[in-house]
Amino acid sequence: MSEQRERISGELPGFEDMQQGDLKSIAEASEALGVTQRTLRFYEDKGLIQPGRVGSMRVYSRREMGRMQLILRGKRLGFSIREIGEFLSLYDHDPDQVVQAQRMLDATQERLAELRHQREAIDQTISELESIEKMSRQHLARKDK
Amino acid sequence: MSEQRERISGELPGFEDMQQGDLKSIAEASEALGVTQRTLRFYEDKGLIQPGRVGSMRVYSRREMGRMQLILRGKRLGFSIREIGEFLSLYDHDPDQVVQAQRMLDATQERLAELRHQREAIDQTISELESIEKMSRQHLARKDK
DNA sequence: CTGTGACCTGACGTATACGTCAAGCACGGT
DNA sequence: ACCGTGCTTGACGTATACGTCAGGTCACAG
After folding, report:
1. What integer pLDDT is reported at residue B20 of this predicted model?
2. Cβ distance of B133 and A76 shorter than 8 Å
3. Which of B105, B115, B133 is the closest to A109 by Cβ?
């Protein structure tokens, strides 16, 4: 069951990460993150994460797990994978995160504007639906007597 | 420009609709409704409308225009084309609209529940983003001094 | 030697609501 | 006769975020 992990750990002479105890197989990673393995491979394909390899097997270090948390958070906030990819790439190539924070701020504001707009639209739709609801009830009440 | 319409009207001995003056070509209909011709053909394909034909050309009577208004309203309210199709079909085969009103009421409530749920989610997302916004500003302010 | 389990890489499928050709007919005008 | 216009019917393309095979490798258990 954990043979493969032991094999993995055993074959790591000095992996660049700090703690080898945090290394996970794709099964463990997906389990821990609550996403499917397909999702992990998909994000890798899109360049959002770059798990290490031991032979052909993917190895997820704490770094990748952290990035995944950020990615999932971004998703919850409604950013597209492409946008999230941009943030992460800025994050990587921007030591003190100035550009990154600025870009993030911009995106955040845009998204906020979208959301506030959506909220208004939803409120309008809700009241329109409520009036339709009333009318339906009246219609039914009339036919019912 | 309006030659074809005249031809159409001329060839209508006793079209079942009341007013021939309301008959529209697909171009006029799409113009009046603010949708593309493709959209009209698409809805027809899906069975939402059944414009008449003069030869092979589609003819939109007041009835179809009315249905289109309903369809567009349904869309604005967030119902899928399939759902709208169901409403319309009930509307057609249900003389005093009892079943129809009931079904509509159900769908309306479902949709309302969805929307209220969405609104909550949006509110949460908004506050989360607002906090990120603050943090980004602080980060930038620190780097700026 | 063969089975089993975990992993791998393509690559096509899904849902929605149309957009965007492509190819062709019928019409009146020049 | 030829052209431009409006209309017709397919049929494939688009975007998003994966799901779902198919087919194959690898290591170890029996």
Report:
1. 62
2. no
3. B133
B58 strand D contact, CB < 7 Å: yes
DSSP, collapsed to helix, strand or coil, labels residue A60 as strand
Q: Which residues, at least 6 apart from B72, have a Cβ–Cβ distance to it below 8 Å? A: B33, B35
For residue range B56-104, what is the model confidence (pLDDT) as tens digits? Answer: 999 999 999 999 999 999 999 999 999 999 999 998 888 788 888 888 8
Q: Considering only CA atoms, name the residue closest to the C1' of nucleotide C7.
A: A57
* Statement: the CB of B24 is under 7 Å from strand D: no
In this complex, which of B78, B116, B125 lies closest to A115 when CB atoms are compared?
B125
Tell me, in Å, how far CA of A139 is from C1' of D4? Answer: 53
Question: Is there contact between B39 and strand D, defined as CB under 7 Å from any strand atom?
Answer: no
Sequence-separated (6 or more) residues with CB below 8 Å from residue A16: none
At A85-135, the pLDDT tens digits run 999 999 888 878 888 888 889 999 999 999 999 999 999 999 999 999 999
CATH number belonging to the domain at A1-78, selected among 3.40.50.10860, 1.10.1660.10, 1.10.275.10, 3.40.50.2000: 1.10.1660.10
Nearest residue on chain B to A144, alpha-carbon basis:
B98
CB B91 within 8 A of CB B69: no
Q: Are B55 and B17 in contact (CB under 8 A)?
A: no
Smallest Cα–Cα separation from B54: which of B12, B2, B117?
B12
> pLDDT tens across A37-80, in order?
999 999 999 999 999 999 999 999 999 999 999 999 999 999 99
